Amino acid sequence: MYLTQGLHRSLQATPNATATIFKDRKRTFAEHGERIARLAGALQGLGVHAGDRVAILSMNSDRYAEYLLAVPWAGAAVNPVNIRWSPAEVAYSLNDSDTHVLLIDDPFVPMAPILLEKAPGLSILIHCGDGATPEGMLSYEDLVAGSDPVGDAYRSGDDLAGVYYTGGTTGFPKGVMLSHTNFMASGLGTIATGELLKVGSILLHAAPMFHLADLAAWCGATILGGTHLMVPFFEPTSVFKAIAEHRPTDVLLVPTMIQILVDHPDSNNYDLSSMARMLYGGSSISEGVLNRTKARLPGMRMTQAYGQTEAAPVITLLLPDDHEGNRMRSGGRAAPHCQVAILDLDGNEVRTGDVGEVCAKGANVMQGYWNNPEQSAQALRGGWLHTGDLGYLDDEGFVYVVDRLKDMIITAGENVYSAEVENALSKHPAVASSAVIGVPDDYYGERVHAVVVLAPGHRATAEELQIFCKELIAGYKVPRSFEFPEALPMSGAGKILKRSLRERYAAAQG
Amino acid sequence: MYLTQGLHRSLQATPNATATIFKDRKRTFAEHGERIARLAGALQGLGVHAGDRVAILSMNSDRYAEYLLAVPWAGAAVNPVNIRWSPAEVAYSLNDSDTHVLLIDDPFVPMAPILLEKAPGLSILIHCGDGATPEGMLSYEDLVAGSDPVGDAYRSGDDLAGVYYTGGTTGFPKGVMLSHTNFMASGLGTIATGELLKVGSILLHAAPMFHLADLAAWCGATILGGTHLMVPFFEPTSVFKAIAEHRPTDVLLVPTMIQILVDHPDSNNYDLSSMARMLYGGSSISEGVLNRTKARLPGMRMTQAYGQTEAAPVITLLLPDDHEGNRMRSGGRAAPHCQVAILDLDGNEVRTGDVGEVCAKGANVMQGYWNNPEQSAQALRGGWLHTGDLGYLDDEGFVYVVDRLKDMIITAGENVYSAEVENALSKHPAVASSAVIGVPDDYYGERVHAVVVLAPGHRATAEELQIFCKELIAGYKVPRSFEFPEALPMSGAGKILKRSLRERYAAAQG
Question: Is B306 helix (H, G, I), strand (E, B) or coil?
């Protein structure tokens, strides 16, 4: 299996159909394929060899879609950089992956001098924005225009497709090595449900394309010869306009984005009726948002995916017809390309309903972490990918994630899942957001500690919140100490950085 | 990827759903899984080791479905034997594949002594019929009841899933080695079209299960946790009754079977309305049969698959909406899991519309022929599977197969596709069936020679048929000599054996 397969089929079957739409540019598959073969030629001309990493730091665009296929076409491996990272984080990932070539978009040009300084291996910058090409960089369009097309290197199977750095809520980012088979297994398995993407779909890329969630949708649409419609980044009005004008059928969103769209005052001013299917991931969806979405787009089929970069990324799918009752809190069941199991610390399956680590097995599971055999062996021990998530299975195979393993608190010998405590706190009207962590405690070993951001204009004391929580959860789960900062530290992907909360707490204790 | 993946998911998600239906037996996934784990234990107890071949010679049954998963569960490889073969052919395949264990069904029990004599490696016969277990054989049910369940050996990826002997219209059968990835790629890719099998489908096995066409459907249904409904063999009334009683949603048939069903006088006496999707293969469907099928089952979506055992087996798919006009004669376009190309003898792609060899590339392409590195290298040269079929592509990627490469006749320097000549002959009312071959000729090199079976009560001379053909095809394609036997030699899969016609002709010439 290989990522360029879908392009070859489209060139044969639908050369004149639309491959990409971005701003005022529309390109056919014939044009798309020609540009990819030329860009691949340019990369080879720049000294990119088989298996070399080629990075991109860019907003969504048609060139992003070209990059994703030109790199394997040239025989190399992609390295899509998180656009929310600091220069230090970007430089870390470029150094760690030994990447010499970076495609860089306009908003990130100011970052270039720092990257060149901090990532000494970086020798070639290709400017892929629509603005003027800065000095010292190569122009993407000049490279495409000035290079001869080359043949597909046909990287496939276990060949490295890319190194994808994960968020880093628990330390330095790790480079996840995914093969062509990893990607294609997840892509084929996900569309095999019949609930996502169809032959001839138009896929809207509104979530950032560097992220595995959007890349998974990209892979599925590419397999089926679909059209890629890009907006540079998620912004409600551009999304509405893109839908009304280009009538996409499929989209990948995170629940926050869905909520922003359906609750937007302009939502009813646009024709969104083309949307047939939506894949969402990152978290469960609240019943309120689901119902409002269904009311606004009654025909649309919604599927949740649960997974992680290490699983390329889909592990479970909550199919449209399973969106009901208690299952709304579930991530769904094992996808057609893999298996899921809940394992204890010894690697044995726990009983139905018992909490353990969510583990996955299948052709979608990563080759390992770049340059990190120890963590690779740890994550893949016993033939299972250990996700680091805690969860349980019900008796129909639905997976419920309760917490990150590292966020579980052991207090006086009892396991406390921070997510459950946060859920209780969230029901208090004064709580805007919260993070619950374990902090060292002489008596309890670890103590349940809550970091709470209050809603504007609201007040609440620690005692009030403790009394409130006691109504909802067991006494040992109720936070014994509190702090009330203005905001919580967030990762690039919008996740709360509990690690930095723990460090901050430790530092404050001196 | 591994064939047992779907079973693991079903055991987790739908343990109480129906896995198999055969005669008066219905088994849940929990029962199905338990029996598979026990049969796997029995096989291991009988000395079956990792990678060993375990053969089956059986009509369709629930035990066939158990065998297909128990063998990989035990770590071994399947070898499903063609039920239409002579004892000599069966023995050849058992010897060639070095198979020691054979599951054997009631109708084939009389063949056992010959097999034991001609296949000296064969040491264990497991009787899998519903009759009494013959002396010297082990009872399938006793083995299942008397063995402890074992854990899945988790054969996967490039591990051998089975050796599948191909028909042998062109010589001795060859053992096609298919890996787990080969099978799963074809299965996932085929269902990824959204036109075949759904979550919860009930698949009717009416075509023989040893054949890759039915096994491909079996694989897809297994991936999606579907129910397998078996009839022992294709017979219209049992098929009608099974559909009316068990309401299957999907079926794999060959066009001849479709024609028999829709033209059957009892067709309207049964409720066939559950049939949602039909996959057919082996040949194109005539417009007449298609229209009659559509009239009888208006809601059913029909997809044609073109492929071969070596491609596990699907190469192209003609989707329901593409069943129109000229495309009805096409095998469709490259399936989501592979690529197709028409290559000339030097391995270069020919121009659109030009005839060459149909070739395929993808994770579905076999590992090679068992014990036959030379023919493997020949079939897989240049990174493409050479199908041995001649065909062309139109400008939208539809593949039209015109002939088998070995059946093409070169007469006075001109290429003649036997299929085209046979097609012309078939339009004459006196012609029941025909086979056109090239025979040695001093003047023409090869001469177009027709072997014609006349329809009962009809007469026609060579001269009449020549005059008739000249109205339809170019003069150099018209057969220069004829013979009129009572019948044509057929292979087990119902294909005309042109090789034996050529041999017969040569022998007759002395």
Answer: strand
Q: Which of B199, B224, B334 sits opposite A9 (nearest CB)?
A: B334
Query: With contact defined as beta carbons under 8 Å apart, do A460 and A454 qualify?
Result: yes
* Chain B touched by A192 (CB under 8 Å): yes
Taking an 8 Å cut-off on Cβ atoms, the answer to whether A14 and B181 are in contact is no
User: CA of B154: which chain A residue's CA is closest?
Assistant: A383
The alpha-carbon gap from A334 to the nearest alpha carbon of chain B, in Å, equals 7
Options 1.10.760.10, 3.60.20.10, 3.40.50.12780, 3.40.309.10; CATH for B5-392 is: 3.40.50.12780
Q: How far B45 CA lies from chain A's nearest CA (Å)?
A: 25
Phi, psi of A32 (to 5 degrees): -55, -50
Distance from CA of A223 to the nearest CA of B (A): 6
Whether A8 sits inside 8 A of B339 (CB atoms) is yes
B363 and A184 within 8 Å at the Cβ level: the answer is yes
Q: b vs e for A71-88, b when ≥16 Cβ sit within 10 Å of the residue's Cβ?
A: bbbbbbbbbbbbbebebe
Per-residue pLDDT of A415-467, as tens digits, reads 888 888 998 898 899 998 899 999 999 888 899 999 999 988 999 999 999 99
Torsions phi, psi for A319 (to 5 deg): -75, 160
- Give residues with Cβ within 8 angstroms of B192, minimum separation 6: A188, A191, A192, A223, A224, B336, B337
Q: What is the ipTM of this complex?
A: 0.88
Q: Which of A6, A13, A339 sits opposite B397 (nearest CB)?
A: A13
pLDDT tens-digit map of A74-101? 999 999 999 988 898 899 999 999 999 9
DSSP-derived secondary structure letter, B113: H
| Intervals of CATH 3.30.300.30 along chain A | 412-508
Residue B445: both structure tokens together? 């090199």
CATH superfamily of B427-508: ANL, C-terminal domain (3.30.300.30)
- CATH number assigned to the domain covering A412-508: 3.30.300.30
Contact of B30 with chain A, judged by CB distance below 8 Å, is answered with: no
Q: Measured between CB atoms, does B337 come within 8 Å of chain A?
A: yes
Contact at CB, B191 and A194, closer than 8 angstroms: yes
Q: How far is the C-alpha of A277 from the C-alpha of A93, rounded, in Å?
A: 34
Domain with CATH 3.40.50.12780 in chain B: 5-392
A5-393 placed in CATH 3.40.50.12780: yes
- Model confidence pTM above 0.95: no
> Which residues in chain B touch residue A336, judged by CB atoms under 8 angstroms apart?
6, 9, 188, 191, 223-224
DSSP state of B82: P
Q: CATH 3.40.50.12780 in chain A, residues?
A: 5-393
Measured in angstroms, the CA of A191 and the nearest CA of chain B are apart by 5
Q: How far apart, in whole angstroms, are the C-alpha atoms of residue B109 and residue B115?
A: 10
Q: Give the residue range(s) of CATH 3.30.300.30 domains in chain B.
A: 427-508
Q: What is the mean pLDDT of chain B?
A: 94
Q: What is the dihedral of CA B85, B89, B91, B96, to 10 degrees?
A: -130
Residues 382-411 in B contacting A (C-alpha not used; CB under 8 Å)? 383, 393, 396-397
| Interchain CB contacts (distance < 8 Å): A and B | 106
Render each residue's pLDDT in chain B as its tens digit; 510 residues.
999 999 999 999 999 999 999 999 999 999 999 999 999 999 999 999 999 999 999 999 999 999 999 999 999 999 999 998 889 889 999 999 999 999 999 999 999 999 999 999 999 999 999 999 999 999 999 999 999 999 999 999 999 999 999 865 445 789 999 999 999 999 999 999 999 999 989 999 999 999 999 999 999 999 999 999 999 999 999 999 999 999 999 999 988 889 899 989 999 999 999 999 999 987 777 788 888 999 999 999 999 999 999 999 999 999 999 998 889 889 999 999 999 999 999 999 999 999 999 999 999 999 999 999 999 999 999 999 999 999 999 999 999 998 888 888 988 888 888 888 998 898 899 998 899 999 999 888 899 999 999 988 999 999 999 999 998 888 889 999 999 999 998 876 667 888 889 988 888 886
Q: Are A378 and A386 spatial neighbours (Cβ–Cβ below 8 Å)? A: yes
